[in-house]
Amino acid sequence: MHRMTTRLFLFILFMLAYGMASAVGFNQVLTGESSVIFGYKQMGVALDGKFNKFAAQLSFDPAKIDKAQAKIDIDVASIDTGSTEGNEEVVGKQWFNAKAIPTASFVSTGLKALGGNRYEASGKLSIKGRTLEVKAPVTFQSAGNKGRFDGILTIKRLDYAIGEGAWSDVDTVANEIQIKFHLVVTAAPNKK
User: Fold this and answer.
1) ∠ CA(35), CA(148), CA(57), 5° rounding?
2) Domains of the chain by range and CATH?
3) Is pLDDT at 22 greater than 50 in this prediction?
4) CA pseudo-torsion sign 53, 54, 55, 56
5) What is the pLDDT at residue 144?
6) CB neighbour class for 76 (10 Å; exposed up to 12, middle 13-18, buried from 19)
7) pTM for the model
8) What is the pLDDT of residue 131?
9) Confidence (pLDDT) at 9
Protein backbone atom coordinates (compact mmCIF):
# COMPACT_ATOMS: atom_id res chain seq x y z
CA MET A 1 0.00 0.00 0.00
CA HIS A 2 2.84 2.38 0.87
CA ARG A 3 4.50 1.79 -2.55
CA MET A 4 1.19 2.52 -4.33
CA THR A 5 0.70 5.76 -2.40
CA THR A 6 4.26 6.86 -3.19
CA ARG A 7 3.75 6.18 -6.93
CA LEU A 8 0.45 8.06 -6.93
CA PHE A 9 2.06 10.98 -5.12
CA LEU A 10 4.97 11.08 -7.60
CA PHE A 11 2.57 10.87 -10.54
CA ILE A 12 0.56 13.83 -9.19
CA LEU A 13 3.76 15.85 -8.65
CA PHE A 14 4.90 15.05 -12.20
CA MET A 15 1.54 16.12 -13.67
CA LEU A 16 1.56 19.37 -11.69
CA ALA A 17 5.13 20.15 -12.76
CA TYR A 18 4.33 19.28 -16.38
CA GLY A 19 1.21 21.45 -16.32
CA MET A 20 3.13 24.42 -14.92
CA ALA A 21 5.97 24.01 -17.41
CA SER A 22 3.70 23.68 -20.43
CA ALA A 23 1.43 26.63 -19.59
CA VAL A 24 3.22 29.43 -21.41
CA GLY A 25 1.93 32.96 -21.81
CA PHE A 26 3.42 35.10 -24.57
CA ASN A 27 3.43 38.61 -23.20
CA GLN A 28 6.40 40.67 -24.35
CA VAL A 29 6.63 42.09 -27.86
CA LEU A 30 10.13 42.52 -29.27
CA THR A 31 9.52 45.63 -31.38
CA GLY A 32 13.07 45.58 -32.75
CA GLU A 33 12.30 42.25 -34.43
CA SER A 34 8.69 43.12 -35.33
CA SER A 35 7.24 45.19 -38.16
CA VAL A 36 4.12 46.95 -39.40
CA ILE A 37 4.14 47.41 -43.16
CA PHE A 38 1.45 48.31 -45.66
CA GLY A 39 0.76 47.74 -49.33
CA TYR A 40 -1.23 49.92 -51.70
CA LYS A 41 -1.59 50.83 -55.36
CA GLN A 42 -0.80 54.25 -56.77
CA MET A 43 -1.73 54.83 -60.41
CA GLY A 44 -2.09 51.03 -60.67
CA VAL A 45 1.45 50.35 -59.43
CA ALA A 46 1.82 48.20 -56.29
CA LEU A 47 3.88 49.91 -53.59
CA ASP A 48 4.89 49.14 -50.02
CA GLY A 49 5.66 51.28 -47.01
CA LYS A 50 6.19 50.85 -43.29
CA PHE A 51 5.82 52.49 -39.92
CA ASN A 52 9.13 52.83 -38.09
CA LYS A 53 7.70 53.45 -34.60
CA PHE A 54 5.03 51.49 -32.83
CA ALA A 55 4.35 50.03 -29.41
CA ALA A 56 2.55 46.76 -28.78
CA GLN A 57 1.17 45.02 -25.72
CA LEU A 58 0.10 41.42 -25.96
CA SER A 59 -1.09 38.61 -23.74
CA PHE A 60 -1.57 35.21 -25.37
CA ASP A 61 -1.70 31.71 -23.93
CA PRO A 62 -2.50 29.08 -26.60
CA ALA A 63 -4.43 27.12 -23.94
CA LYS A 64 -6.58 30.15 -23.00
CA ILE A 65 -7.34 32.02 -26.20
CA ASP A 66 -10.54 33.48 -24.71
CA LYS A 67 -8.28 35.61 -22.48
CA ALA A 68 -6.02 36.83 -25.32
CA GLN A 69 -5.48 40.58 -25.54
CA ALA A 70 -3.56 42.85 -27.87
CA LYS A 71 -3.06 46.57 -28.34
CA ILE A 72 -0.90 48.18 -31.00
CA ASP A 73 -0.24 51.94 -31.13
CA ILE A 74 1.37 53.27 -34.30
CA ASP A 75 3.14 56.63 -34.52
CA VAL A 76 1.74 57.75 -37.88
CA ALA A 77 4.46 60.41 -38.29
CA SER A 78 7.00 57.56 -38.47
CA ILE A 79 5.60 56.50 -41.85
CA ASP A 80 8.08 55.61 -44.58
CA THR A 81 6.54 55.56 -48.05
CA GLY A 82 9.91 55.23 -49.73
CA SER A 83 10.25 58.92 -50.59
CA THR A 84 10.76 62.10 -48.54
CA GLU A 85 8.11 63.93 -50.59
CA GLY A 86 5.59 61.13 -49.99
CA ASN A 87 6.36 61.04 -46.25
CA GLU A 88 5.82 64.80 -45.93
CA GLU A 89 2.52 64.62 -47.84
CA VAL A 90 0.91 61.72 -45.95
CA VAL A 91 1.49 63.15 -42.46
CA GLY A 92 -0.44 66.27 -43.53
CA LYS A 93 -4.04 67.20 -42.78
CA GLN A 94 -5.59 65.52 -45.85
CA TRP A 95 -3.95 62.19 -45.08
CA PHE A 96 -3.10 61.20 -41.48
CA ASN A 97 -3.20 64.66 -39.88
CA ALA A 98 -0.32 63.51 -37.66
CA LYS A 99 -0.03 66.80 -35.72
CA ALA A 100 -3.63 66.63 -34.48
CA ILE A 101 -3.98 62.82 -34.27
CA PRO A 102 -0.48 61.33 -33.90
CA THR A 103 -1.48 57.73 -33.15
CA ALA A 104 -3.41 55.01 -34.94
CA SER A 105 -4.36 52.06 -32.74
CA PHE A 106 -5.76 48.56 -32.75
CA VAL A 107 -7.37 47.11 -29.62
CA SER A 108 -8.45 43.47 -29.74
CA THR A 109 -11.93 42.41 -28.66
CA GLY A 110 -11.60 38.68 -29.34
CA LEU A 111 -9.63 35.83 -30.85
CA LYS A 112 -11.21 32.81 -32.53
CA ALA A 113 -9.35 29.56 -33.22
CA LEU A 114 -9.66 28.36 -36.82
CA GLY A 115 -7.60 25.19 -36.42
CA GLY A 116 -3.92 24.49 -36.51
CA ASN A 117 -2.00 27.68 -35.95
CA ARG A 118 -4.67 29.89 -37.58
CA TYR A 119 -6.87 32.41 -35.78
CA GLU A 120 -9.22 35.27 -36.52
CA ALA A 121 -8.56 38.41 -34.50
CA SER A 122 -11.33 40.93 -34.06
CA GLY A 123 -11.01 44.40 -32.63
CA LYS A 124 -11.36 48.13 -33.05
CA LEU A 125 -9.09 50.01 -35.41
CA SER A 126 -8.81 53.76 -34.82
CA ILE A 127 -7.22 55.98 -37.43
CA LYS A 128 -7.56 59.76 -37.75
CA GLY A 129 -10.28 59.91 -35.09
CA ARG A 130 -12.48 57.23 -36.66
CA THR A 131 -12.96 53.83 -35.04
CA LEU A 132 -14.32 50.78 -36.88
CA GLU A 133 -14.70 47.08 -36.06
CA VAL A 134 -12.26 44.92 -38.02
CA LYS A 135 -11.31 41.26 -38.39
CA ALA A 136 -7.99 39.85 -39.52
CA PRO A 137 -6.62 36.37 -40.17
CA VAL A 138 -3.62 35.65 -37.94
CA THR A 139 -1.12 32.81 -37.72
CA PHE A 140 0.96 31.97 -34.68
CA GLN A 141 4.19 29.94 -34.62
CA SER A 142 6.31 29.23 -31.56
CA ALA A 143 9.65 27.66 -30.78
CA GLY A 144 10.52 27.44 -27.11
CA ASN A 145 9.78 30.70 -25.33
CA LYS A 146 9.68 32.74 -28.55
CA GLY A 147 6.75 33.09 -30.92
CA ARG A 148 5.55 35.15 -33.82
CA PHE A 149 2.21 36.45 -35.00
CA ASP A 150 1.69 37.26 -38.68
CA GLY A 151 -1.47 38.76 -40.08
CA ILE A 152 -2.95 40.90 -42.82
CA LEU A 153 -5.70 43.42 -42.32
CA THR A 154 -7.32 44.98 -45.39
CA ILE A 155 -9.00 48.34 -44.89
CA LYS A 156 -10.56 51.00 -47.09
CA ARG A 157 -8.67 54.22 -46.55
CA LEU A 158 -11.67 56.45 -47.27
CA ASP A 159 -13.55 54.83 -44.35
CA TYR A 160 -10.97 56.56 -42.15
CA ALA A 161 -10.76 59.80 -44.20
CA ILE A 162 -7.20 58.97 -45.25
CA GLY A 163 -6.64 61.01 -48.40
CA GLU A 164 -9.26 63.74 -48.48
CA GLY A 165 -10.00 66.39 -51.11
CA ALA A 166 -8.24 65.71 -54.40
CA TRP A 167 -6.68 62.60 -52.83
CA SER A 168 -10.07 60.92 -52.44
CA ASP A 169 -9.84 59.89 -56.11
CA VAL A 170 -9.32 56.12 -55.91
CA ASP A 171 -7.93 56.04 -59.46
CA THR A 172 -4.86 57.89 -58.16
CA VAL A 173 -4.42 55.98 -54.89
CA ALA A 174 -6.51 52.82 -54.51
CA ASN A 175 -9.03 52.65 -51.68
CA GLU A 176 -7.80 49.26 -50.43
CA ILE A 177 -4.79 49.22 -48.16
CA GLN A 178 -3.25 46.03 -46.78
CA ILE A 179 -1.68 46.33 -43.34
CA LYS A 180 0.73 43.47 -42.64
CA PHE A 181 1.96 42.92 -39.12
CA HIS A 182 4.73 40.67 -37.87
CA LEU A 183 5.02 40.57 -34.08
CA VAL A 184 7.81 38.65 -32.40
CA VAL A 185 7.01 37.81 -28.78
CA THR A 186 8.65 36.12 -25.83
CA ALA A 187 7.06 34.07 -23.11
CA ALA A 188 7.39 33.20 -19.48
CA PRO A 189 5.69 30.32 -17.65
CA ASN A 190 2.30 31.35 -16.30
CA LYS A 191 1.68 31.19 -12.58
CA LYS A 192 -1.15 28.84 -11.78
Assistant:
1) 70
2) 25-189 (2.40.128.110)
3) no
4) negative
5) 84
6) buried
7) 0.83
8) 98
9) 41
